[in-house]
Amino acid sequence: MKQARTGSRLSEGCSSRLMSRSVAPQVISQTPLLPQQPDSALARRAAVPLPPLRYNVGGLAVHVTVLFFGMLKDLIGRSQDDLELPEGACLETVFEHYASQFPRLREMADSVALARNHEFAAPDAALGDGDEVALMPPVSGGAAGSPPWLAGAGEESSWYALTEEPIDIQVLKERLVQGEDGAVVTFEGVVRNHSGERKTLFLDYECYVPAAMNKMREIGRQILETYPIRGITMVHRLGRLEISETSVAILVAAAHRKPAYEASLEAINRLKRLVPIWKKEYFEDGEVWVEGEWETSVPRSMGTPQ
Predict the structure, then answer these.
(1) Strands 246-254 and 194-195
(2) Which of 231, 240, 256, 306 sits in a 20 to 30 Å window from 27, CA-based?
(3) Farthest CA pair distance, the chain
């Protein structure tokens, strides 16, 4: 029986068996996870069905939902897709399906991160029925919460949140500071009016919310374990931001200033490399997704760099 050709060999543990019938991927939604107006190119491409996925006889079907973020959403032409895969399929199976249709995606293989059910995962991670898969380009830089939080989670000495509303630093400070604190360091990342020689009009941030909340909590716990600080708060804003508005805020409370400064710097550096949040810059003559770089520990579609 003839086997479908792929651009690279499936990882060990991935099933290469293909069923002889074909199932056209069904588009669940063409609406991005965060409210925004799709550009005309995205709208046109979303209306065109992707080629069917073909399998060999034998094996049970596994249904997965695939999410695309940032520039990958524009490349594929949709923000979400539904696939039926053979039993034994893995994350690489999903990546290969789209890379075979979009050569640019294969060129980005060493920078595209993969996630399964809100957690980063290696290409050979097996998929189960009902799994959620995310393909994520390099980053640019929980339970649902009540307004103004899109999502929020807190522990005794920490608070992590995502919001589409302006970030109120004073509210965050009052929530964090306690009597034993002798220093509070506040970092705010704000929208600047230029990128190189181009004038920036505004920014638009997009996020994989469940994975972002998980990663922010993980970073916060590691910071608390590493530095002699008492508490930390991390909040990122999503959606459209105007010039000079705060996009991210990190507050660190400690008995002394030095560890507070050091912990704040480490927190923003790790957030920029690990949390799945993407930024699109809008100019008078166009727009562009800002491509950054994943931390080396994050699994990619071509495997984790050594």
Answers:
(1) unpaired
(2) 240
(3) 73
Positive or negative, the Cα torsion across 152, 274, 76, 64? negative
- Considering only CA atoms, which of 101, 94, 60 is closest in space to residue 80? 94
Q: Residue 190 — very low, low, confident or very high, per pLDDT cuts 50/70/90? A: very high
Total residue length of the chain: 306
Strand partners, 237: 163
Measured distance CA(136)–CA(277) in Å, rounded: 9
Residue 167 near residue 246, CB atoms below 8 Å: yes
Pairing state between β 53-55 and 194-195: unpaired
- Cβ(234)–Cβ(271) under 8 Å? yes
The β-bridge partners of 81 are: 66
Least confident interval from 52-66, 121-135, 232-246, 269-283: 52-66
pTM (2 decimals)? 0.57
- Give per-residue pLDDT as tens, 96-141: 999 999 988 887 887 788 889 988 888 899 999 999 999 888 765 5
